[in-house]
Amino acid sequence: MTDMTIKAIRTSILRVPWPETPWLKGHSFGDARNILVLEVETTSGIVGMGYLFSFRPGLRTITAILDEVIIPRVIGKDATAVEGIWNDIWKLTVTYGRGGIATMAQSALDIALWDAIGKRANMPLHRLWGHVRATLPVYGSGCFRGSGGDGMIAKALHYKSQGYKAIKMQMAHTTNLRGDVENVKRMREALGPDVDIMIDINQGWTADVAIQQGRKIEPYDIYWLEEPVPADDFKGYMRVAEKLDIRIVGGETHFTRFDLRPFFEDPRIPILQPDPMRGGFTDLRKTAVLADTWGIAMAPHLFPELNVQILASIPNGLWIEDMGLSEDLWVEPVPVKNGTITAPERPGHGLAFKPEILKDCRVSS
């Protein structure tokens, strides 16, 4: 038997310049990508890797809780005891966790542990968890409001030319409500009837504004309206879902299945978008089961290279989001081809950062 005792855990922070591409124009993510890399090494020499991708500062704080609380707790444990480790850390941090920094820290560990387990089994995670499908549809995301109506349309047309059957644009966070609606009208005219249009509000409206604006864009055959209200405004979500014919979706800002509970208690949200870095693979798989119980589909937030493992192994996986944030980071990327993505057959999650990125972009402590 392979000894899966956790021998060492290493963390590093990377600051990686954005790739030179016009299609990231209009984003507001700063001048570089902030990434925390966590490696779990077992006594037998198997190394699992997890990572966090952050658009804002805070990774040093996550590293601090890893060093002070989580790493000492798991050294010497069996890496295959991933469920027990998840629950132990959840209870350990309960008085100051249940979300936020603590949950993101344990998510990086959880992703790394599953990677190690997959490598030990010599199986990709989607096979280990129970394969459903190999290939899934991808929507082109990141038609940023910051690039204006013309910029959003140009990026959407680029996605269409690459074979994507759906795109996501942004509204809200502007004082020009009429201009927002006009952008949607122009987008539909530019794309024609055969490309689905998703719209991300990024929590930018109150429920009443969402209802008013939603009614104005309904004629343009909108596939979904995402995060129309602040994440904690569950009643607002339900009001908007009740008043509009457009699908109302959300979940990326919520932490774990516990934070998503109101969406299961009153299942008017047909698609959930949890983030793997706000609960790890362990909790994301449980969220998928709960969602399936209530007839809710899954379209997790970003990170197609990770989420493809989950979605290829569940019956209610619907969409993968692609924003072009990380394809240049990997030794072997998980490419989008003709608007679809295929789960790799490499052991674990199958990802490894390019050695030159780990070397050249590491931030000194």
Write a structural description:
The structure is a single chain. By secondary structure, this protein is an alpha/beta fold. The chain folds into two domains: 6-122 and 354-360, Enolase-like, N-terminal domain (Enolase-like, domain 1, 2-Layer Sandwich); 127-342, Alpha-Beta Barrel (TIM Barrel), CATH 3.20.20.120. It is 38% helix and 19% strand. It contains 13 helices and 13 strands. The strands form three sheets. Strands 4, 5, 6, 7, 8, 11, 12 and 13 form an eight-stranded mixed beta sheet that branches. The protein has a three-stranded antiparallel beta sheet with strand order 1-2-3. The chain has a two-stranded parallel ribbon with strand order 9-10. Helix 1 packs across helix 3 (100-121) and helix 7 runs parallel beside helix 8. The longest helix has 22 residues, at 100-121. The radius of gyration is 20 Å and the shape is globular. It starts with 5 loop residues before the first strand and ends in a 5-residue tail after the last helix.
